[in-house]
Amino acid sequence: MRNAENKTIGIISAQIGQESVENERAHVYLGKRLHDLGLSHSEILGYYKGQPEKTFLCILESEEHITKLENLAFDFGQESVLISEPSRKSYLYFTKTGKRENIGTLEEVSSVEGLESFSIVTIGGKETIWTCK
Prior knowledge:
By secondary structure, this protein is of the alpha+beta class. The chain has one domain (2-132): Alpha-Beta Plaits (2-Layer Sandwich), CATH 3.30.70. The protein has two helices and eight strands. A hairpin with a 2-residue loop joins strand 2 (40-48) and strand 3 (51-60).
């Protein structure tokens, strides 16, 4: 996450349920929407509640970008979207209620053992694992 150092980031997926053709189409469309909204993003692999999801890591340059990402999560029927501040204090924004729940600090870890929700980011061929603690 070198490009994301000292920046607010968001992690979002378009996937609902298990892997399917509809989820793949939604993922491609979400990538297009992120591009059209001017949100810098990269594909990563996420796990939410133990299920793998094609996911995007987004660089959020302003409060307006955060709002755009939260609205996209709602548009794509997502339960929540993760927002992590430059300090890496993180929260989930729940789309149905508009509430934010603090979930700890986003940290790099060495293993996925015992984790239900985490992201795998590949930079220069090296995988790193990130989760909130």
